[in-house]
Amino acid sequence: MRRRLAVLAAVPLLFAAACGSEGGGSATSASTPAGGGITVTGAANAKPTVKFPAGAPAKTSSSKVVTEGQGAPVKMGDTVVTNMTLYTWDGKSNAPGGSTYDAGSPELVPLSAQLPKVIQEAFVGSKPGGRFYAIVAPDSYSKKDLDQAKAQGADLSMAQVFVVDVIGTAKSMAAQGAAVKHKLKGVDLENPGGDKAPKLTTKTKEKAPKELVAETVIKGDGPAVKSGETIMVQYTGKIWGSDTEFDSSWTRGKPVFFQIGTGKVIKGWDQALVGVPVGSRVLLSIPPDLGYGKNGQGDKIKGDSTLVFAVDVLGAYNLPA
């Protein structure tokens, strides 16, 4: 599989900085004058352009809606699929701190009381396709939070500005529903239910199929995945015959995003996952010519390996490449 690009390291750290204070600090409503005087422009689903006012940075946290969006509003407890861009507002360079647009992958944000209050309030009520920005100023943090963040290499004494594009919400972290018994001989797949990871076993003396095999074990009720969409998936990948696990989003602890049908992933995924309904769990057996061929990949995938995946397709989004 394509090695997942590292997403913003600063974002989870800054969002988590208020964990000890349970979303403490103040939050000025979006009706405060011009949201700190910042101007955010640019197309939806693209990296924004941000213009800062002259003078000292804001000392008070606030947020402002840039684009309303459409669809079901975000609520507390949701896990939100986002693209975001971060700036440090120091009144001088106002330097960018990174962007998921540069990293090449959206980011999941669990919306909880552990986030700074201004972030919570900005997310709640936002809709897919919407854009807002939140100024997280020093008043959002306790002294303990600031000291803890500084020890971890983050300076929160300056206002942090998050420009957030809301893509959607993740309904679950695993495919839900009744599972049917697969027909692929030599492979075992246990489906424990809930948000638990399926257990894939590929230790077998059976010969691997020479052709691509794709079996839907749990059929989702969402729209069919289209070529060119970015899909959110959980997956485990193992080698046929040896039960060697070479990759797993479950092991890393959260879903990942890939553009499908455009050559960004191995051919077996592109061929098998386009057309799959969102919410499905699919068992794949991928022959070498649709995987990593004679050369293999890394230390675990040897040349001419047949790859076996259990893939949960949890979302599909029309995002720029």
Descriptive tags:
321 residues; 12% helix; elongated; six-stranded antiparallel beta sheet; Chitinase A, domain 3; disordered N terminus; mainly beta
- The residue fraction in helices comes out at 10-25%
Order of helices and strands: HEEEEEHEHEHEEEEEEHEHEE
Please compute the radius of gyration using only Cα atoms. Answer: 22 Å
Mean pLDDT value: 88
CATH architecture of the largest domain: Roll
CATH topology of the largest domain: Chitinase A, domain 3
Task: Identify low-pLDDT runs.
Answer: 1-14, 16-21, 26-34
Strand count: 16
Number of DSSP helical runs:
6
Determine the N-to-C terminus distance. 17 Å
Overall geometry comes to: elongated
Count of all domains: 2
Please identify the structural class as seen in this structure: mainly beta
Major beta sheet, specifics? 6 strands, antiparallel
What is the level 1 CATH name of the largest domain? Alpha Beta
Task: Note the beta-strand portion.
Answer: 25-35%
Put the structure in a nutshell.
The protein has helices spanning 10-16, 100-103, 117-123, 143-151, 249-252, 267-273; strands at 39-41, 49-51, 62-67, 79-89, 96-99, 107-110, 131-136, 159-170, 188-190, 199-201, 213-218, 230-239, 245-248, 256-259, 281-286, 307-317. The chain is mainly beta and 321 residues long. The protein is elongated and about 70 Å long.
